[in-house]
Predict the structure.
Amino acid sequence: MKRLLKYGEPLLKAGRHVPFACQKLAIEQLAQRLFAEPLAEGAFELLRGHWLRLQVTDLGLAWCVTCEGRRLKVAARGRADVTIRGNWREFLLLASRQEDPDTLFFRRRLVIEGDTDLGLGVKNLLDALDPEHLPPMLWRMIRSMGQAVRV
């Protein structure tokens, strides 16, 4: 897994050259599938009428996300109410649950700027999402990659 991460990092950095329309389509469709149950339950309602900017600093990538109805919508830019930024490894550690989210934010490895109440709500929402709802193979891959990055 470490080898995959080592050789895959240049591909991640090439992601900034993918046209935004392709990024948007991929992210929206993936989010709809991965978060179908939480979206149906209204878990993302805290984003209704608000914009979250996710900024992956070391990759030069950023997306603005909001919730419209039971869907997450992605935009290239706009007025974000809150920004969460960090390097890709920190986001992977967060997604794989290899690091406690509070630790990542307290040590400023992930940073919340803007409406901190909204940012903390998003952090708590993501922390509360049950990884068991992910396809098992995907969850194993995310966990393995997180473990490889953590060491």
Summary: The CA atoms of residues 80 and 137 lie 33 Å apart. The chain has a mean pLDDT of 89. Helices lie at 2-14, 20-34, 36-40, 88-96, 101-106, 116-128, 136-150. The chain has one domain: 2-150.
